[in-house]
Amino acid sequence: MKYLLSITLIILAMNVSAQEVNKKIHDAAHNKEILINTCTREGVVTFPEFKEMYDPLYAAYIPDAATMIELKKLIKKEQVKIVFGTWCGDSKVNVPNFFKVLDALHFKEKNVSIIAVDGHKKAENGIIDGLDIQRVPTFIVYDKKGKELGRIVEHPKTTLEGDFLAILKKKP
User: Fold this and answer.
1) In a 10 Å sphere around its CB, with 0-12 CB exposed, 13-18 middle and 19+ buried, how is residue 157 labelled?
2) How many CA atoms, within 13 angstroms, populate the side-chain half-sphere of residue 131?
3) What domains can be seen in the chain, in order of their start residue?
4) For a Cys staple, 61 with which of 32, 37, 84, 100, CB 3.0–4.6 Å?
5) In the sheet that 138-142 helps form, which strands lie side by side, from edge to edge?
6) Comparison of pLDDT for 165 and 10, the residue scoring more
7) Could you write out the three-class secondary structure of the chain?
8) pLDDT at 172 over 90
9) What are the pLDDT digits (tens) for 45-81?
């Protein structure tokens, strides 16, 4: 009985300390409600301010077919971290378009992590410490071992799929 009680207390403690996903807070920098910390794609695409641009932009974006063919050849078990702001204009444009690219590649959702930041480009509990986030959105591509291969910051140099391809082409 003591053993079961101990296990139950450990599980409860883990749940209490577990980070709230799709957390909403009031952002003083922009004086509005925003998402903060770890998010799910569902949480992002249903957040009212983000959704109003997400749906039409996602539907309208057509990734370059030739670039996508090349990308599909290079995609292995990479991981992508998306750091964005629900308040940010560049995030509102580029996150839907990046998801369109990932979907066209059949990129595994489990290999994508999404982190929302506040108006000062900060998240809680140190979850973006060490990532050197200066602008959002920032799309960071990692190899299967977690080594950063490259990133797209704020907006692509060419296209999202073109920049993604350039990152993967540099892979050893």
Assistant:
1) exposed
2) 28
3) 21-169 (3.40.30.10)
4) 100
5) 23-27, 32-39, 112-116, 79-84, 138-142, 148-153
6) 165
7) CHHHHHHHHHHHHHHHHCCCCCEEEEECCCCEEEEEEEECHHHHHHCHHHHHHHHHHHHHCCCCHHHHHHHHHHCCCCEEEEEECCCCHHHHHHHHHHHHHHHHCCCCHHHEEEEECCCCCCCCCCCCCCCCCCCCCEEEEECCCCCEEEEEECCCCCCHHHHHHHHHHCCC
8) no
9) 999 999 999 999 999 999 999 999 999 999 999 999 9
What is the residue whose two structure tokens read 């249903």? 46
Q: How far apart are CA 91 and CA 50, in angstroms?
A: 9
pLDDT at 32 over 90: yes
Q: How far apart are the first and last CA of the chain?
A: 54
> What is residue 18's predicted lDDT score, i.e. its pLDDT?
59
Residue 8 φ/ψ, nearest 5 degrees: -60, -45
Nearest to 143 by CA among 115, 172, 122: 172
